[in-house]
Amino acid sequence: MTKLTAQAAGTFAIAPTPFHDDGRIDEASIDRLTDFYTDVGCDGVTVLGILGEAPKLDAAEAEQVALRFVKRAKKLQVIVGVSAPGFATMRSLAKKSMDAGAAGVMIAPPPHLRTDDQIISYFKQAQEAIGDDIPWVLQDYPLTLTVVFTPAVIRKIVMDSPSCVMLKHEDWPGLEKISTLRNFQKDGSLRPLSILVGNGGLFLDFEMERGADGAMTGYAFPELLIDVVNLSKAGKRDAAHDLFDAHLPLIRYEQQPGVGLTVRKYVLQKRGIISSSAQRKPGAVITPQARAEVDYLLSRVARVDRRANLQPQSSAAG
Amino acid sequence: MTKLTAQAAGTFAIAPTPFHDDGRIDEASIDRLTDFYTDVGCDGVTVLGILGEAPKLDAAEAEQVALRFVKRAKKLQVIVGVSAPGFATMRSLAKKSMDAGAAGVMIAPPPHLRTDDQIISYFKQAQEAIGDDIPWVLQDYPLTLTVVFTPAVIRKIVMDSPSCVMLKHEDWPGLEKISTLRNFQKDGSLRPLSILVGNGGLFLDFEMERGADGAMTGYAFPELLIDVVNLSKAGKRDAAHDLFDAHLPLIRYEQQPGVGLTVRKYVLQKRGIISSSAQRKPGAVITPQARAEVDYLLSRVARVDRRANLQPQSSAAG
Amino acid sequence: MTKLTAQAAGTFAIAPTPFHDDGRIDEASIDRLTDFYTDVGCDGVTVLGILGEAPKLDAAEAEQVALRFVKRAKKLQVIVGVSAPGFATMRSLAKKSMDAGAAGVMIAPPPHLRTDDQIISYFKQAQEAIGDDIPWVLQDYPLTLTVVFTPAVIRKIVMDSPSCVMLKHEDWPGLEKISTLRNFQKDGSLRPLSILVGNGGLFLDFEMERGADGAMTGYAFPELLIDVVNLSKAGKRDAAHDLFDAHLPLIRYEQQPGVGLTVRKYVLQKRGIISSSAQRKPGAVITPQARAEVDYLLSRVARVDRRANLQPQSSAAG
Amino acid sequence: MTKLTAQAAGTFAIAPTPFHDDGRIDEASIDRLTDFYTDVGCDGVTVLGILGEAPKLDAAEAEQVALRFVKRAKKLQVIVGVSAPGFATMRSLAKKSMDAGAAGVMIAPPPHLRTDDQIISYFKQAQEAIGDDIPWVLQDYPLTLTVVFTPAVIRKIVMDSPSCVMLKHEDWPGLEKISTLRNFQKDGSLRPLSILVGNGGLFLDFEMERGADGAMTGYAFPELLIDVVNLSKAGKRDAAHDLFDAHLPLIRYEQQPGVGLTVRKYVLQKRGIISSSAQRKPGAVITPQARAEVDYLLSRVARVDRRANLQPQSSAAG
């Protein structure tokens, strides 16, 4: 697999980790997920992210999941989330993943970081821990991680670490941050950096217009992300928004903290891609009311985008 | 003005506090805002909330703003946000507002509360501070206030305080919370309680279906909130969602933390209701790019809902 | 009263706000407190700090308390805590206090500040709000305020604002911070700045040796703070530590968050300085067990420092 | 090794994890530490706690450290900290430690827990994860862990889980909490529970008097903890305080967050027990000034307690 570079663009799906109902890792579903992402046209897949229930896996399991994705992915670049409470664990998973063929790793800040210096220093040490030769993605996600990066801090981290090639951008609000970073590049103070956006895609329409290179998020219809990214890059603004807006009610529903993953797994199961929507404990369960709401949203999306038609199909459906 | 009761329902607009460009309170705009909310059919208006930049006002100014809204509102019930670091300030503003004719007050928890007991005890003391005769609204807004209420804690607070007549619900995710509270009422453990929903209206469509009595939020088109509330109550589900979905891209854009208020004030100014979109310091400023994005969103909403057509109009526009 | 300068040194007592048992402000006790601080040799007194239950006062009461202290203090410099959720309230109290003769004001950061830029920008705006002519004290107290200042951020704030003349230092741990700031002055990057230390005096012994100019804290025996500051300045290291260590068990007991104020008010009441140990609601109450523990500690301190002998005295006591 | 029970009492040292200067685990120092704790009379040792830099170890290393301590300890009960972001990791380390002969495990709450229900539910699931047969210690340490337990929540957790046999108490302030829990036992609502106190021992004197069964903390002179526990149990109040107070200046110095571990490792190295005072990255380093301060404090403690005399000794030292 080729290594991740600052030229990376397009759509990287954030993969959930599929479990059996009893909490065991479901490897067959990992394979189906990987094939699905490949078939719809994703450029990459990010595994063991926050969405991927990574902290619930022990070290051996994390390695097992990462390697299963890497082995199965032929055309996709795989990014492995290696965030960990300590550098020993981070390094260990990073090395094993890269040895197996991963394209890069992703690192989120631990929640206790507060000052600019603490943040900068943490990522300097993290990069030393994994070594200079592993391309890595900086995850900027204040809502969940409680660490706030200014654009200048991101610039400093990137300029300090040549192997930092990508920003996973999910600050909220975040549109001005993309513009500021792109302006840093225009004024020559920031080197090339891929910016893929998260937040469930909730602002993907405008984030692309502000200069994002693509999406990296877990919306259960990566096809939509791909289309919006492509339409936006092709300058078809209205078309991009039209399609995006058709999905927005569901995107919004999925982006609820905590509940979101139950929705994603429910939809992916409904699509026949993963066998069970179970989360490993401690995890949330989708309620019957929520399920009915998602079904209703799917039916509404399907009026515009037939890929969202997941109803049990009669003979001549399609 | 009649006092707020647990039967309150419909749409209460959260009013921004209008300032002149130099930071002085703009009383003429308060009057226009009040008239606007009345004319479009709001049931009430909530002033000096978080959106209302209340902490930036000194005590005399807070009283001035509250009383100006109360005096101007003839048909609207006015709820005054009285959250304060201490009970002396809270009581003082509550008394003065009620004396002037407010319908009730709203109280948010201070951010240091953590345990169930701390939360319950705080609201018991707050109610003692303002006195038994002032109807009050409990604000549940963890994202901004960092205090997490379980449904059981809300029930306890409400059952302890007969004058607590309404929940401003803006937990996130929050759909199951509404269902749980309504189930408490079915099983007889919770007395009648009005539930109005906030969060910029981002989940208003489903919140109504879960049992909310209406909306209390600051979306710059309260007309949309009113319509969705009414359609939903009339059982016109698809129509409610159709209209809601047309506005959702803008609702979502407005709901960005920090930035949201700049958008709301920009739109309200564009609608001719407030004179200036200025926030008092420290405040955010809408960038030219954001302004253009909002204009684009307005033009898209206007394709479905002509009330969003805020373009300078030629002679025969409409 | 002379205005506060960067040459300020010695001991500034942090005054509690005395209340009657029913929560009303006790002005006679304010006078006695002021006289007491003067008589024992304090250089100043800081009122309406965190210890002073300032947020529990409404605006008029805050002004009343501040002015009462200012009027009574003849030889003491009075610093008024003006921290507030908004600049309007801060400015209002600052102006009134200075007009009445206060020496300066103290400003703490609001808890939501995170990045270096946010912190620096806040204090820039705060200084603009109160005006250039009011000397002010920067309060650095992460444990309670949750805002973390690096030494470089403090330097930036001080260099940006000529009227910032003092740091109330109560970071924890904080010894290296004092050394770093003093080194900034040696290398010419930081102008003169008074550093008074808080944290209940728990590290006063070494803080003086690291370069503090004195103490600003609420320990119920300001005499001890004065003595340790003076002995340390006179280079009598062992004597300073001997006296400090005798008080340390009580200093430590007083420094418990939340409980500390109950102890301080209890001791000050026992010393005959304030009439009631009551806190305004919501407040803690000293338990009988805690009272007995404090009495025991006082009796132990009194073996070395007879000023701590607060027992009801028989005829020939002393 | 016998399993931990609710009758556990005395002094359990919290062991640092010894590293070589280059960050590798120092097994010889683990052995010396274990022997030292045994020789001075500790009843147990707790490894891989927060002080033990546990998050910096990967899974294999954590197991290595735990097992090394367990193998070496003949007379000591070993408690292994198994707190982890997920239950799979927690279970894995717990099983391996118990199989090797550990007496029990210790579990701290993850920082995102807020409501009473969340806390109670977490520990219920944690106990299910490790199984019913492993005695476990509940760690209550709000200052660092940011999770606040009321006494009633602790009672609920303990009553729900028969295998929870001990509370590591380090709330701050915490004296009333001990009294409340002991009162729960008097009124029959709480079953027997060992309470060992932490917080560096800063309140050990009074905590024993409030009903603690002993100490579990990392002060570099466990001899002092043992003596104070024993004197207190023997009812020798003044003697307990006299000895405690002699150490308090150093106890206080060691209890500084972040810096404390540098001091402990420095003293333990100076005592010849561990080879290096190095922390694994990211870690703090003791400055020359801090080292001199600790040396000064040691010399002062040594005037009362000769065990603190760590100076290079001439022939006739003493």
Automatic annotation (TrEMBL), chains A, B, C, D:
InterPro entries named in the record: Aldolase_TIM, DapA-like
Name listed for the protein in its UniProt record: Dihydrodipicolinate synthase family protein
Keyword tags: Lyase
UniProt signal peptide: none
Keyword Electron transport among record annotations: no
Family the entry assigns: Belongs to the DapA family.
Cellular component, GO, one term: cytosol
Pfam family, one: DHDPS
Binding, pyruvate: M216
Gene3D superfamilies documented for this protein: Aldolase class I (3.20.20.70)
MF (Gene Ontology): 4-hydroxy-tetrahydrodipicolinate synthase activity
PANTHER family the UniProt entry points to: 4-HYDROXY-2-OXOGLUTARATE ALDOLASE, MITOCHONDRIAL, DIHYDRODIPICOLINATE SYNTHASE
